């Protein structure tokens, strides 16, 4: 199928009431795993990088690996920049071959958020690249206290999306997809979230564009199914993938008689672990056999 835009990959998802998984993937093994699992499940997939993955020349290396996987794939693949803070990074990623960017100006006042997204949308649309924005603000699931202690609650610092502002925001900003705040949070939950499905239903009724749920990792499965049934067309998964990779790697290294063996060997079990996470999410989101 090759590379597709974010806008294109979400259109059918919204119409047919399933969600496309977006996996944050930091290296070539994760990229390959995501696309191969998607092929096995006959599912569209979105590969995403965050700014730390792309420092310096890594933007070219990461993009080359993702584009190779996309062009060899038998299923639709979108390549996305997740949570960009600047217009400049969006432009660099678009020029490197990404097919979608997410500009996160959600912590700014309403009009400033619109202006920032509108500027990026103008630059991206000329390049055939889709733009995701966020209205409301999805906060962090945890804060770090003394000696690494995890504190805080699910959804801390959230500002819920106001349905009355959605249509105006989309029209004025020119975004192609909208991340909404309905109770999830980024990171690892201290307590499980409870999503505001009634609020989501109101947002979906007025939104001209597909809706996105950030903070999908750790959200109870029944709530994710309910969110998809009520308008969510894309769900972001990062923490569960990273946890599976690093926990399995730690176990693998701890069991090794010494550490002077090939990295490719050390990565076999971590890669198998993230493949199972990805497969489970694809099936949960209903994007398999699509």
Automatic annotation (TrEMBL):
Keywords carried by this UniProt record: Metal-binding, Zinc
Residues that bind Zn(2+) 2: 104, 134
Residues of the active site: 82 (proton donor)
InterPro entries found in the cross-reference section: Aldolase_TIM, Class_II_FBP_aldolase, FBA_II
Cofactor: Zn(2+)
Residue sites binding Zn(2+) 1 per the record: 83, 186, 214
Protein's recorded name: Fructose-bisphosphate aldolase class II
Species annotation: Victivallis vadensis
């Amino acid at each position: 199928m090759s590379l597709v835009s974010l806008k294109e990959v979400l259109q059918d998802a919204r119409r047919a009431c399933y969600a496309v998984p977006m996996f944050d993937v930091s290296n070539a093994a994760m990229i390959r795993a995501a696309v191969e699992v998607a092929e096995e499940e006959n599912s569209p997939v979105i590969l995403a990088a965050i700014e730390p993955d792309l420092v310096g020349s890594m933007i070219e290396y990461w993009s080359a690996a993702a584009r190779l996987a996309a062009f060899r794939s038998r299923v639709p693949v979108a390549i996305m920049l997740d949570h960009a803070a600047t217009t400049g990074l969006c432009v660099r990623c678009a020029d490197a071959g990404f097919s979608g960017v997410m500009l996160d100006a959600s912590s700014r006042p309403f009009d400033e958020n619109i202006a920032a997204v509108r500027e990026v949308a103008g630059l991206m649309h000329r390049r055939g690249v889709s733009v995701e924005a966020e209205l409301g603000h999805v906060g962090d699931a945890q804060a770090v206290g003394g000696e690494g202690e995890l504190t805080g609650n699910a959804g801390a610092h959230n500002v819920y999306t106001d349905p009355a502002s959605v249509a105006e925001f989309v029209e004025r900003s020119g975004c192609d997809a909208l991340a909404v705040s309905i109770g999830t949070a980024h990171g690892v939950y201290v307590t499980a979230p409870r999503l505001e499905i009634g609020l989501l239903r109101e947002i979906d009724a007025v939104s001209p564009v597909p809706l996105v749920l950030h903070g999908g990792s750790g959200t109870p499965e029944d709530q994710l199914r309910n969110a998809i049934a009520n308008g969510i067309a894309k769900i972001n998964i990062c923490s569960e993938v990273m946890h599976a990779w690093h926990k399995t790697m730690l176990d693998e290294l701890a069991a090794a008689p010494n550490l002077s063996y090939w990295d490719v060997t050390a990565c076999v079990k971590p890669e198998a672990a993230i493949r199972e996470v990805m497969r489970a999410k694809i099936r949960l989101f209903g994007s398999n056999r699509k």
